[in-house]
Amino acid sequence: MNQEFNLTEQGYLLKIARQALENAAQGKPLPELDFNQLPASFAENGASFVTLTIDERLRGCIGTLDAYQPLARDVQEHAVAAGLQDFRFPKVIVDELAMIKIEVSVLTERKRLIYDRPQDLVTKLKPHIDGVILQDGIKKATFLPQVWEKLPNPEEFLSQLCYKMGVPRDTWCTKPLDVFVYQVRKFHEQ
Length: 190
What we know:
CATH class of the largest domain: Alpha Beta
Strand order of the largest sheet: 2-1-3-8
Distance between the termini: 24 Å
Helix content: 25-40%
Order of helices and strands: HEEHEEHEEHHEE
CATH superfamily of the largest domain: Hypothetical protein ph0010, domain 1
Mean pLDDT: 96
Structural class: alpha+beta
Shape: globular
CATH architecture of the largest domain: 2-Layer Sandwich
Radius of gyration: 17 Å
């Protein structure tokens, strides 16, 4: 999905995420999505990540790289998953809800990055713009563009992404990997 979202649309997606997270944390069913009352683009397939933070510290982040369901449903499901299914954190509890800040990232379609050698890969990446997917056979990992804020050095960024993928950190230097890039439209609660 290569669309910009106006402030009203951003607000709708954030509200969808917030309501889903709150209902799930309280053990209530997810709110029904009425696509007749939402912008038409929300019914189109879209890929999203939902990130939860408390005091700017990560509290959960779940999403998908592939657009396989309506964007509004994708955001709803990933808000719940970020709060209750991110294995790195305990489930969000009701007492935390007021402290949690939600960020929604809507992904563009991925594009294969063709490169000849490791340094060529480094120069083709656009820090702070590109999300990166590394793939080695069945192993795959991604970092959203926001990760560049914590890992601004491209070599370190790629090394950490290899680590996340479960291969040695220098794998991006020692063998050709499938590399894809994408961008995001991101917005967060105030």
